[in-house]
Amino acid sequence: xxxxxxxxxxxxxxxxxxxxxxxxxxxxxxxxxxxxxxxxxxxxxxxxxxxxxxxxxxxxxxxxxxxxxxxxxxxxxxxxxxxxxxxxxxxxxxx
Length: 95
Description:
Blueprint: E1 2-8, H1 16-24, E2 30-37, H2 40-49, H3 58-67, H4 73-94
Parallel strand pairs: 1-2
Helix pairs in contact: 3-4
């Protein structure tokens, strides 16, 4: 039996192929293709709010993405501050 494996999730697993081979080693199957479904976060943002990324500022995109995570308020505030600092430094370098 031939298989195509579709992996959903935004995590990058460097040993994905080895993991799948170990799972299927004892089965009478041959894995023909392994695909990763990417971009779940961006698709979720667009589907939930019916907004496109073109309509949002980079800060709004980052804030909406952070809201999808389970973070304590202190960590979320630190990440937002660091993101704003990085964007500001990039904008200064472009001028």
